[in-house]
Amino acid sequence: QVQLVESGGGLVQAGGSLRLSCVASGRTFSNYAMGWFRQAPGKEREFVAAINWSGGSTYYADSVKGRFTISRDNAKNTVYLQMNSLKPEDTAVYYCAAQELGVGEQNIYDYDYWGQGTQVTVSS
After folding, report:
1. Residue 30 pLDDT
2. CB-based contacts of 42: which residues, under 8 Å, 6+ apart?
3. I want to staple 70 with a disulfide (CB 3.0 to 4.6 A). Which of 32, 39, 49, 75 is the partner?
């Protein structure tokens, strides 16, 4: 079992930045690819970014490419999402997810564990 706890969400003006963190516990963190997803009110949960076990490969949704950066620190059991140039349409609950022995897929059904989410609100 893996427990995931996100933090770092909040209210920010358009054009601003936030850094989300997700701390994992319970299993060997480096066995897991990690992903960030988001869900806005009335919409389905969507892929944002993913990273493989070593951090050597990263993947992004087109909507965030060039603005968001995913990274991980296996020594701290933590994955990060640096979000720059935020837009009102980035407003959502952001979730981190873990995929055992994965490479960083974009499909939510490929992930084994999920955090509770952290709210990000971008005002115009």
Report:
1. 86
2. none
3. 49
